Amino acid sequence: MNDNKEPISPPIRFPIGIIGGTGGMGRWFAAFFEKEGHTVRVSGKDTGPRPAEMAAACPVVVVSVPIGVTQEVIRQVGPHMKKDSLLMDLTSLKAGPVRAMLASSPSEVIGLHPLFGPSVPSLGGQNIAICPARGETWLPRVRGILEGRGAKLVETTPERHDEIMAVVQVLNHLDTIAMGLAIRRGGIDHETLEAFSTPLFRGKRDMIARVFSNMDLHAEIITANPHAAKMIGLYRDVVDAVGRVAAGGDAVALAALMRTDDGPDETG
Amino acid sequence: MNDNKEPISPPIRFPIGIIGGTGGMGRWFAAFFEKEGHTVRVSGKDTGPRPAEMAAACPVVVVSVPIGVTQEVIRQVGPHMKKDSLLMDLTSLKAGPVRAMLASSPSEVIGLHPLFGPSVPSLGGQNIAICPARGETWLPRVRGILEGRGAKLVETTPERHDEIMAVVQVLNHLDTIAMGLAIRRGGIDHETLEAFSTPLFRGKRDMIARVFSNMDLHAEIITANPHAAKMIGLYRDVVDAVGRVAAGGDAVALAALMRTDDGPDETG
Q1: Chain A residues with CB inside 8 Å of B258's CB?
Q2: pLDDT tens by residue, B127-142
Q3: How far apart, in whole angstroms, are the C-alpha atoms of residue A41 and residue B74?
Q4: B16-156 maps to CATH 1.10.10.60
Q5: Closest approach of chain B CAs to the CA of A63, in angstroms?
Q6: Does A169 touch chain B (CB under 8 A)?
Q7: Are B15 and B41 in contact (CB under 8 A)?
Q8: Contact residues, A window 202-261, toward B, CB-based 8 Å cutoff
C-alpha cells in the first residue's frame, strides 16, 4: 500500500499558440501538442487570435509561417510576449528568425527546425535541430516533450545550422529539381518511364514528386539560405566536372573521378 | 477420380549456360534458374566451360559480363551456337549487344535488360526490358519463366531501349553522382550530416551509396549509352538554368521555373 502523501508531479501542461497553425507543419504540431494534453490555439493569415491576443493567452507561442514572412510575423508577436514566456519558430532556416526573435521579444527564445515534413506519422526516430537562444526555464520542458516521443534533438547555433542545411536542403533540393526538369526535357512520356523504371529511378521520381508538390516551400529553402550562392556555385562546378568527364566517354576516367574527387582543385 | 490418360505436360526444363555467372547479376540469375528446375552451368573470366563447350552443352546461353567486354564475349560464343538454340544477354544497353549477337551467331537471339540489381529478393513486380531479335521458339518460354515469377516484361527495340535508358539510367546516375561529389566537397562530416538529415536527404544518401558501391558499372552505363552526350548536355543546361535562377535569390522565380519549364527554349 502506498501511503506516500507527496503527489506524483503531473507532466507540466500549458497553452500553446501556433501562428500559421493552418499550414502543413503548423497543423502537424497542433495535433501533436493536443495529443500530449496541451491546450492549443491556432491562427492563420486571416483567422484565429491576433498576435497580441495570442501572446497574452499562451505562455508558449510558435511561429510556423512561410520562410519569406517569418521575420515579419516574429516582429508582430515578439513585443507582446512576456519575459517568462517562450517564443519559438519552426522555420527551415535559423539565423534570421532567431535574430528576429531575440531582437523583437523580451521572452525566452528557442529556434527549432523539425527535419521532416508533415507526412511522417510520429516523432519516433526523426531529427530536430534545436537552437536555444535565451532563457533556461523552457528548454528542458521542450526537450522533454519532443524527446519523450522519440525525436532525436541535435543542438547547434543558428549559423552552423544554416551552413549544414546548405548541404542537407539547398544542394539536395537543387539536385532533385534539376533531375525533375531534366526528365521533363528528356521527352519520354510518364507511362514509358514507369514501365522501364529501376528501383533507383522509382525512388528518385518519388523524391521529385515530393519536392515538386511543395514548390514554394522548396524554392524558399534554397533561395533564403545565406550559403545558397556558394552551394549553387559548388554544385554547378561539380556537374560541369562530371559532365565533362562523362562526355569524354571514358568509363575508367569517370569511375576514377567518383573515387578520388576531393574538391575543385583536383578536378576543375 | 481422374482417369484422363493424357499426362499433364511438365514445364520445359533445359540446361542454361551463364557466361559471367560469377558477377552480381549472373549469380542472381544462376540461382533463379536453378530454383526453377533448370540445370545451370556457369563460367567466369578464368573459370568454368569455355565458349565452344558452353554452346555445345547448353541450348540457352546467357552473356552477363561487364558492358565494356560484352560484344567481345558475344563474338567468342556466337559462332558456336546452334541454329535452334538461344543466345541472350543481360547488359544495361541493348543496341550494341543485340547487333553483335545477330552478327556473330546463327541462333535465336533475345536481348534482355533486367531493370533491377542483384539485391532484390525476387522478380515480383520488377521490370525487365525485352528485345526479341530473331526466332520465335524460345521467346514464349523465356517470357513464361520470367512472367511466371511476377516480372513485368516490356518489349521494345534495342534502339528505343537505349533512348529510354538515357533518362532512366544516364540522367539518373549523373544526377546521383553529382550530388555525391557535391556533398563531399561541401565539407560537412558524415556524423553531422546524419544528425541533421531529413527523410529526403537520407533517401538521397542511400541512392548515392548504391551508385558509388558499384562505380565501374555505373560509369559504364553512362559512358557507353549512345545518347549519353545529348543527355549530359541537357543535364548541364538544366543545372545551369536552375542555378542561375536560384542564385538570383528570388523564390517566386525559382518556383515559376519548376512550374513552367518545358525545355531549353523557354528557359535558356
Answers
A1: 177, 180-181, 212, 215, 218-219
A2: 999 999 999 999 999 9
A3: 71
A4: no
A5: 20
A6: yes
A7: yes
A8: 203-204, 206-207, 210-212, 215-216, 218-220, 222-224, 228-229, 231-236, 238-243, 246-252, 254-255, 257-259, 261
* pLDDT of B90 over the 70 cut: yes
What is the reported pLDDT for B261?
A: 74
Per the structure block, which three cell numbers stand in for B55? Answer: 554452346
* pLDDT given for residue A10 in this prediction: 62
Give chain A positions within 8 Å (CB) of B152. Answer: 195
| Nearest residue of chain B to residue A129 (CA atoms) | B196
Average pLDDT of adjacent 10-residue blocks, chain A of 268 residues? 52 92 90 96 94 96 96 98 98 98 98 96 97 97 96 98 98 98 96 97 97 95 97 97 96 95 48
Of A48, A45, A68, A61, the C-alpha closest to A101 is A61
Mean pLDDT of chain B: 93
* Section B200-205 average pLDDT: 97
CA distance B161 to A195: 11
The residue written with cell numbers 564475349 in the block is B73
Q: Which of B166, B182, B197 lies at the smallest CB-CB distance from A115?
A: B197
| pLDDT exceeds cutoff 60 at B5 | no
Q: Is A19 helix (H, G, I), strand (E, B) or coil?
A: strand
Name the percent of chain B lying above pLDDT 90.
90
Enumerate residues 87 to 146 of chain B having a beta carbon within 8 A of any beta carbon in chain A: 115-117, 120, 126-127, 129
What residues 14-73 of chain A have any CB closer than 8 A to a CB of chain B?
67-68
Give the start-to-end residue ranges of the domains of chain A: 16-156, 161-267
Q: How many contacts, defined by CB atoms under 8 Å, are there between A and B? A: 268
Count how many residues are written for chain B: 268
A94 CB contacts (<8 Å, ≥6 apart)? A111, A113, A129, A131, A158, A159, A161, A162
Q: A56 with A85: CB under 8 angstroms?
A: no
pLDDT value at position B10?
62
